[in-house]
Structure formats: structure tokens, C-alpha cells
Amino acid sequence: MNTYKYTYSKAKLTLSVDKNLIKMAKENKINISHFLEEKLREHLNLAEGCGRRDLNPSCKLGKPSFIGEKRRISKDDFEKYLTLRNIENISNSWFCQCRTWLRNYLDFVEWRIDENKTLEYFKSLKEKHSVTYYRKKTYQIRRFLKYLKVEWADEIRLPPEPEYYPKRITKKDIKDTLSYFEEHKLFEQIKALVLLAASSGMRPQEIYQLRPEDIDIENRRIYIHHNPKNGQTTKTKRSRVVFFNTEAQEVLSDYLDYFNTNNGLKCLFGQSHISRLFKDSKVKVKDFRKFFSQEWDRRGGPTSIKKILMGHSLKKDVDLMHYNAQSPDDLKKIYDKVGISIL
């Protein structure tokens, strides 16, 4: 080790540095004084607003381990975290939702690591929202804090999911929903959505992402793609094929003809538009998937095939993971044999 002295405008500093590093820095024409000052400023900016006891000497330059309170969160850290989330193949809508939640939180804590204000924020969330919503938002914030290596992030505990009882949906509920919208100017679109969703078991998000080219009217098939680059994602990150009945085939064919004319609609079933339509409806879009699941069982359909058609996770199902393989044609024959009808 060689000892070098550096003279600054306000202070002298003596450092012990590996001589090989000094040699390599000189060969690469690196100004050691400027480099050191720049790194110190970058590191200490993170500790702005903290007492000296919080400047932990064990904290290495580079990605900090946040020890202490009220350290500043840089925009660079935030953007890097968002980039890492974005490349996880999550849907664009979920990415935007998480980004909004994190920004709201950061604005509340004034972009600082502040345990007390964080707890205050969580308390406010819990008082205003359902347990399910609170769990989702708190989990995303905790995940971000863990990314920043905040020590007390591990102490944040999520409440258990509330006990859930599925809503029973019958054919009468579906028919009543169609009657509710019968006089609406976009009834053609609404009827196509209702019959398609109820006879296919698709998730609402999958319906919202649907494009005309994904629909095979003649063979009554829908190709659900997991392609985040194209704005299409599935919960299990797997593409699949689903089917719809002849009732949906007829109205969907008419709706596609209507959609392909200049009617002002940009998407087959745009999420914000459909959500507004069903805001006051007793039966929501997500309930049509419940109907499909319940009606399939009422008609004695095999549960294993229902799992495949509905896009359930096949993990922990030994038969579906290792033995039960069905082609799209096989699935369609079984689907038609079960014979879900609505009208």
C-alpha cells in the first residue's frame, strides 16, 4: 500500500490506496481526486437530512444499504426499479398501476426513507380501502423498500386474505343482465361480450386485450396470447385456446361486422369503456367467468379440462403436469359435449 496526500480547497486528506489501483487509474487517465469527490457527493446525497450517527461507515459506495431514517430516495433508483419490473413480462396495465401506487407513496413520504411516515401511510390505506386492495398496494411498496435494502421492510406484515364466498351466477342472471342493457345504443357490443365471456370462461383482462385477428368465428375459437410486447398478457404467462358456443358465434359475427365499420370504437372491448358500462350493473364482467365455471360443473364437465380452458395454474396438479395432454381439437370436442348454453 502507498500513501498519497490530496489537497482540496478546504481540507487535506490522506488515503491508503492499493498502488496497483493508482497505477491503473493513471494509465486510464482518471483524475483520482475528482473521481473520489464525485463518488462521495453521490453517496452522501442519499444521506441528506440524516444525523451523523446515520452515516454508517460500513455502508459501501454503490448501491446503499439504508440504515437509519429519512434517507433520500433518488429518481434513478426509482426508475431502475421500474425497469426491472417492466422486464418481468407483467402486463402494461399492471405495470402502470404499480408505478402509480409507488409514486403516491413516495410523494407522501417526500421521497425519503421514513418509517414513521410509511406506517402512517399504511394506516391511512387500511382505513380507506378493502383488505384485498390494501394487501396489493402494501405488498408492492414493501417490495420496493426491500429492493432498496431498507432494514425494517421485513417487519411489514400483510393481513390475511378475507374468507371468500363465490357469488352464484345462473342463466337467469345472464338473461337479466342482457335485459338491463337491451335499450342501450351499444347493445350489440354488450351482448357479444356477455355471451362470449359466459360461454368461454375468459378473464376480464383477456377480453379487454382481445383483437379481431385472435377470433376464429368459423371454428368458434379464441387464441389468447401471452405477448407483453404486443400488450397482451395472461395471469399464468401462458398462451392458450378457448372456445365459445353457437349463441356467442352468431352475435359475435354480427358485432365484428359492426366493429369493422366506422363506428368510433377503437378496441373490441376497451377496458375503461366496458367498466363504465357495467358500473351500475348487478352482474359484473368478472361474474361471467364465475358462471362458466359453475355451469360447467352443473353439467358434469371434467374439472381437469375446465382448468385448462380457464387458464388456471397447473402447478401442483400432478395429472395435468405429467399425464393429461389434450390437443385443441380434443378440447373442443369435450367443450361441445358439455354443451354450455345461455339463452
3D architecture notes:
- The chain has 343 residues and is mainly alpha-helical.
- The protein has three domains: 2-68, no CATH class; 72-155; 171-338, Orthogonal Bundle (hpI Integrase, Chain A), CATH 1.10.443.10.
- The chain is built from 15 helices and seven strands.
- It has helices spanning 19-27, 32-45, 75-86, 92-108, 115-128, 131-147, 171-180, 187-200, 204-208, 246-259, 271-277, 285-298, 303-310, 318-322, 328-338, and strands at residues 2-7, 12-17, 71-72, 112-113, 215-216, 221-224, 240-243.
- The chain has a three-stranded antiparallel β-sheet with strand order 5-6-7. Strands 1-2 form a two-stranded antiparallel ribbon.
- A hairpin with a 4-residue loop joins strand 1 (2-7) and strand 2.
- Helix 4 (92-108) crosses helix 6, helix 8 packs antiparallel against helix 10 (246-259) and helix 8 packs across helix 12.
